[in-house]
Fold each of these.
Amino acid sequence: MAENSPIGEIHSNLPNFLLSVRLKYVKLGYHYLISNAIYLFIVPILVAIGLHLSTLTLEDLITNLAMLKSYSTLVVFLATLYFMSRPRNVYLVDFACYKPHERYMISKERLVEKLAGIFDEDSLNFQKKILERSGLSDKTYIPVDKWIPSNFSLSSNQHQAKLVIVGAIDDVLAKTGVKIREIGIVIVNSSMFNPTPSLSAMIVNHYKLGVNVITYNLGGMGCSAGLISVDLANRLLQGQANTYALIVSTEVVSAAFYTGKDKSKLIPNMIFRMGASAILLSNRFSDRWRSKYQLMHVVRTHKGADDRAFGCVYQDEEEDGKKGMSLSKDLMAVAGEALKTNITTLGPLVLPMSEQLLFFASLVARNVLKRKIKPYIPDFKMAFEHFCIHAGGRAVLDELQKNLDLSEELMEPSRMTLYRFGNTSSSSVWYNLAYSEAKGRIKKGDRAWQIGFGSGFKCNSAVWRALRTIDAAIEKNAWTDEIEDFPVQIPY
C-alpha cells in the first residue's frame, strides 16, 4: 500500500516521458503483438484452401487424390497449430468494490483531532497541511478506533482485513451468482499486512473451499499489485480449462501507520483509506454472454535492476524501532521512467495503425536519421475511451493528465475516486471503473486502460474491452447511491 502512493504528494514534476522513448521498448511491444497474433495468419490459409476445394468437382477430387491428401494433411496441421497456439479468452464476469459502513467515515478535522495526542506540533501541522491539499473529502473511511497506537495489534489488523475482504467477495458472488466452490483459483494482494496463515488461507477457511483450490498471496508489491494479480490469473487460466479465478486487492491502513517525525514517512497517514475490490475472472466460453469485459492486454514493467529505482521507496526501521517508508528524491523521476517504458511497449498493441505509422516515422527520423524534428506524441485517446489511473495522489494525477493530454472528463473517475474514497492502494483502479459504470459511460466495445505503479519500481497496465453496455439504472456498486452528486469541484 504505502510503497508507492506517496508519489502523489511529492511536489516534483514527472518527466515528460512521451517526449523521449527508446526504440527497444517499441520493438518489445511489436514482439508481444506478433507473438500473440501468429494464429491470425493461419486463418486466411485455411480459408484459401477451402475456397479452392469448393471450386473442384467430385471427379477432380478423385483424379487428384494426392492433392486432396496433401490439402487434408495441411488443414489438419494448421488447425492443430491454430487451436494449440490460440490463447484462451479471459472474461471479467463482474467485480465489486467494498464500501465501508458509515461508522468508519471520518472528516479531515476529526482525523487531525485523533492524531493530536500522538504527534508533536511540527509533525501534526505537516500532516494537516498534506491533508488540506490532498484532494480527499470529509467522507473517506478509516477504522479510526483501531487506528491509534494503543490499539495496534495483530488481531485488530486481521479483523480489518477480514471485514473488507469478505465484504467485497460476498458482493461479487451475489452479483454473479457463482457458487464459491466453483472457484478454482484465489489470488490476494496486500502489500504491508501479510499474516500467517495468509489472507488467501483465511478466504479458504472462511468459505470452506475445496482441497484442490489454487491460492496465491502477493505481498510487498505496492499499489500495482492488483494488475500483477490480473496477469497472474490470466497466466493460470491459460493452463486450466473451465475455471473461475477470484482476485482480491486490499490494504490494511493501520499496518502502515507511522508515528515518527520523518516527514516523508508521514504522508501515507494522510492519504490512505479503507477499501478493497474483488474481481471474478473466467475462461469459460459460456460465460462470455454475461461477462462485462474481456481482457485484451497486460503489460508489466519492472525497473528493479536499477539500484536507484529499487531503493527509491524503501521500508526501514528507525533507531527507536518505528517502521516507515523512506522516499528518495529520485522517486518522481523513477516513476516517470517506468511509465514511459510501459506505455511505449503498450503503444504498438493498442494504437491504431495511423498513429503507429506517424509515431514510428518520427522515432526513426530522430533516432536513426538523427533529424532534429519535433517528436510525434501518440494520441492514446484514440486507443481508449476510459482511463483508470491509480488514485495515488493529486500531484501525480495532475502530471499524468498533462503528459497524456487528457480532458477533465477522462480524469474524472480517478479524481473522484481519490476525493470520495481516498487512496485505496491496489483496489483504486476498480473504484475508477465502477465510477464510469455508475455514470452509464461504459458502452459495448469501449476500451478501458487501467494503470498502476508500485515500489521496486514497477508500472503495470491492463486493457479491457467492454462486451456489453453497462446499464447504470440496474448496476449496483459502491457509487450507486450517491453517483448523482458527482462530479464535484475539488478545492486545492
Note: Residues 135 and 490 are 6 Å apart (CA to CA).
Amino acid sequence: MTRKVSNFSDLIQRVTASCLLNPLVPVRKVVEDDSPYESEENRDEEEQENYHNDDGDDSGDDEDEVLEEKNDDFKEDKMTGLKILKVKQMEVLMEEVFETVSSMKRSYVKLQEAHSPWDAEKMRVADMAVVSELRKLAVLRERFRRNGGGGGKKSGRRRGFGVASVREVVAPYEAVVEELKNEVKVKDLEVQNLKEKLEGVVALSSNGSGEKKPGRSQSKRKLGIQAIAAVPTAELFETTMVQVREASKSFTSMLLSLMHNAHWDITAAVRSIEAATASADKYHNASTSSIVSAHHAKYALDSYISRKIFQGFDHETFYMDGSLSSLLNPDQFRRDCFTQYRDMKSMDPAELLGILPTCHFGKFCSKKYLAIVHPKMEESLFGNLEQNSQVQAGNHPRSEFYNEFLGLAKTVWLLHLLAFSLNPPPSQFEASRGAEFHPQYMDSVVKFSGGRVPAGQVVGFPVSPGFKLGNGSVIKARVYLIART
C-alpha cells in the first residue's frame, strides 16, 4: 500500500512537471505516461472545441460572401456611373474640338484674305487668331489624353505626350516665324542700302549748291560713285573691276600663305599652273614654259584663280542654267540686273548666304569654290574636307578662308551684273601666251625699272582679262611678261 501511494505521488509530480514545462496548446500533445482516461477526456474537449470553432467559421464565411456580393454590386454601379460620366465628358470635349477647328478655319481664311490685297494689320490680327486656336487644340488634346488613362507611370507618359503634342503643333509656326525673320533681315539690308544711296545723293546735291556738309569724310570720287549708282555706266564698271582685282590679290595672298604653311612645293605648283595655261592656249609657245621665278609665284596663282572664276562670264548665268532672258527680253533683263546690283552692293555676302544659301549668287559661289579649291588641295591645306562637304551639301562655311573667297565672288558677281546692265555690254578679251606686248590693251603685273616695259617682252601668261566698253574706253588685261627667247 505504501508503495502504491509512493508511485501515485511520483505520477502526480511527473504530470505537474510536464504541465509546467509544456503549456497546453490547441494541438494535442501525447505525454508518455498519460492514462487512457486522461487522453480520452482531452480528446473529447478538443473535439468539442473544434466543433464550436467549425460552427463559427461557417457563419463568418457566410457573412463575408454577403459583404463581397454587396461590394461587387457597389463597384459595378460605380463603374457604370463613371463610364456614363466619361462618355458625357468625351461628348463635350469633341464638341469643343469641332468648334475650335471651325474657328481656326475661319481665322486661316482671314489670314489668306489679308495677303491679297496686302493688309498688314488684318494679317497680324488673323495670325494671332490662328495661333490662339492652335493653342486651344493643344489644350483639348491634352485633356483627351488625361481623360483616357489612369495614373502612375502611364499618366506621366501621357503628360509627356501632351507636351510633345504642343511642340508638334507649334513647330510649323516657329518655322514660319524664322522665315519671316529672315525676310525682315533682307529688307533691313535693302533699307540700309537705300539710305546710303540717299545720303550720297543729298551730299552731292549739297556739294553742287556750294553748301558744305559738316562731318562728311567721303572724297569727291566716292560721292560721284554714289550718284552714278542710279544708272549703270562705264565708269561704274571700271571702278568695280578695280575692286575685283583687289579682292583677287587678297584671296591669292591668303591661299599662298596657306600653301607655305602646309609645306607645299610652290615651284611644282607653279609649273602645274603654267602647264594648264599653256594647254588652254592654242597659240602658246612651248619655249616659254617654266618662266616664273620663286618670288613671282603669286602671279601664277592669281592667274589660276582668275581663269576659274571668270569662266562663263559671257553668259547671263555663268552657264549654271540654259536661261536666255537677255535675248528674249533684253531691256527688262538689263533693268533687272542693275536692280540686283543696287540691292546687293552693300550686303555682306556671308550674311546674305546665311539667309538665302541657294539663291543664284549662292549657287555661283558653290560652283566657283569647288572649281578653284580641289578636294586634295583643301585636305592638304586644312587636314580635312569639312568645307568641301558643306559646299557640296549647298551650305556655306563660316571660316575665314571661305569668307575671303566670298569677298572675291561678290565683286565678280557685281561686275557680271553691271556687264549685263550696260547697252552695249562690254566685250571681254584676254592676252594669249607668247603674244606681243601692247601697252594700250595690256598692263604688266611686274614693274620694271623706270616704269616702262623694255622692248622684246612677250606675254608669259595672262593674269586677268580685259574689257572694251561701249564708250570706247578699255580696261587693260593684266599679263605676266617675259623676255623673248
Note: Residues 104 and 234 are 57 Å apart (CA to CA).
Amino acid sequence: METPVEKTPPTQQEPDIKRPKMSTTTSDEEPCDPTNTTKKQRYKRRKIAIFFAYCGVGYQGMQKNPGAKTIEGDLEEALFHSGAVPEQDRGNPKRYDWARSARTDKGVSAVGQVVSGRFYIDPPGLVERLNSFLPYQIRIFGYKRVTASYNAKKFCDRRRYVYLLPVFALDPCSHRDRESVLASLGSGKELVKCLDCSERGRKVVGAVGKRSFESKSVDISSNNGDACVTEDVISDNLNSESIRETDGSEHDGIETKSSVLQSDTESHSREEVSIVNVDSSDHDKKESDSTENLKTVDGEKINEEEKRNGFSYGEDEKERFNRILKFYVGSHNFHNFTTRTKAEDPSARRYIISFDASMTINVEGIEFVKCEVVGQSFMLHQIRKMIGLAVAIMRNCAPESILETALQKDVNINVPTAPEVGLYLDECLFASYNKKWKDSHEELSMKDYAKEAEEFKIKHIYSHIASTEHKEGVVALWLHSLNHRNYPDLLVTTTNGLENGDGEENTTS
C-alpha cells in the first residue's frame, strides 16, 4: 500500500507595492518621494474656516471669474504663495474643498466673510503670510479648525448685510427731477436747483453766503402729475443746452439771485422751499464774502444742511421707513427683486428674518441710515432692489401698497436698484454648527475679531462710502432716476384710475 505523498502548498507571491496616490481633498498628508533621502518636515492638511474682510472697490465681486479681478482670485493666489496650497493644487480649488459663505456682487464690500478648505497651516504665522501677499483692502483676521465635513456655504444658517443710505435720500424733495427744476426757473415758484448734479454729474453741497431768501410754495409738477417724482439722468450735453436755453443768466457754474445752488431744501410737510440764513464758517471766511454771487462749498456737512432745510431722520420718518422694510420680513417670492430668475423657480422664494433701520451714523459729514437685513440667503441685487423700492416709497414716488404687489408671484414689475457702494456683508452666522459641535470645536463667529473688524470697517468701508458720495454723488445722481418715466410700474392701477406716490388718484380718460 502506497503511502500518500503530502503536497506542499504553492508559494504565494507578494502583491506589487502600489505607488502612492497624489494628494486629494480627502488626504491629510503631502505625498512623499521614496527616492528622496533628505529629511524634510512633513505637514498635514487641516480643515479650517478663514475669517476676513475686504473693500469691494475695483473688484468684480467675490466669486472667481476668468478674466476679471475678483476677491477670490487674489485670495487663492495668496494661499498658494503663503504655502497653504501646494503647487499641484494651484488654480484648482476643488482639490482642497474650497467653499465661500456668501457671494458678493461687484463693488460690494464685506467685514465678516468666511471661506473654508483643507490647507497647510504650518509652520505658524499663516495669517501674517497671507496678509503679506494681499492688497491693503483685503485683510485676513484669523482662522479656526472645523470638522472634516464642514462647508462654509452649506453650514451658514443666515447672513447679515448692512446698507448705508444717506439720510437725504429719504427726503421726498431732495435732488428733484431736472425738468421740473428747469421749468420753474424765473416763474416765481422756483424749485431749488441741484446744479452740480444736473451739469457736472456729481453732487457738491452748495451754500448761500449770508443772504436769506423768502420761502416760496411749490406748485411745479412733472408730466405725470407728481410733484415729487424725479426724472431720468439726462446726458451732460443735452442737460447743459437745456440749462442755457432756460436761464441765460447762468455762466460758468455761477448763478445770479434768481436761482440757488443748494439741494435738499424743500420742506415736504409744507411743500415749500425753505432757504435759511447761512452763517459764515471758517471755510467761508477764506472765500470772498460777496452778496451778488452764490458760492459752492466743498466739504460742508450734509447733515447740517438737512437741519437747515427742515428734514431729518426723526421718529416719524424712522417709524415709516421701518414699517416699509418690515413688509419684506418672512417668506416671500422675490422674483421681482432680482434678475434672470423666474417666478416659478423655487430659488425665487427667500426667507427674510429681520430688516431694521433704527440707527444713524455720521461719516465725513454725511449722515447715514444703517439698514440692517438678516436672511437665510439672498439673490443677485435682491438687497439693493429692496432698498431701492423702499426709498421710492419714502420719496412718494410709489405707494406702500406696491410692496404687496411686488411680492406676488403672478405680477412682474420693474423695481429700482440702489447703488452698490453702500452695501456690505456684515457677518455670516453658523448657529446650528456651533450648537452641534460646541463641545469639541471652537465657535465660529466674529467675536474674536470684533476689534479688527470695526477698525477695518471704519478705515476702508465707511470712508469709501462717504468719500464716493462726496466726490461722485452716486446716490444723489441715482435719485434723479426715480420717476414714473423710468419706472412706470411704480404707478399702481386702482379701480378709479392710477394712484400716484402721494396717495392721490389721477383720473384717466
Note: The chain is about 25% helix and 20% strand.
